[in-house]
Amino acid sequence: MNLYHPILANIIGNLKAEDIFYQVTGMLVVFCCLGLLSLILTFSGAVAVRLEAARKAKAAAAQAALAAAAPPAAAPAAAPEPTPAQVAALAAGIYDAAASSITPELVAAIAAAVKVTVGQESRILDIRPVDSSYAQGGRASIMNSHLPLRG
Fold this sequence. Notes:
Blueprint: H1 6-13, H2 17-69, H3 84-94, H4 104-118, H5 133-145
């Protein structure tokens, strides 16, 4: 392999000292700016950490003062247990296997979803399947819109 390539020889032959000085000066300016930015970010990060620690200390002191001033809270009253008759009435109202396809697992899933969504225990009064005639009509309308026009 020939290390003396004509293009490479042309580049090296045309190099001037002032071109190299210009390139090195530009790189030094860039590195100095990056170093300065690094120092600024480090300093601002340290200030932010100290401000956050002071804010947390102030919040902890306010919380301690509030806890010392507030009387102890009474335990929340427990919800009364439903009687077997109430449970049977709820089960009969919610789950009617002969009339619908709603299974106890589906009722449990719906109850869990309601609890997660609302954030507390809620009473489900009725679960019924939705009449699908509207959905069927909508699908038929969409399918009919794709038919070719007849003239």
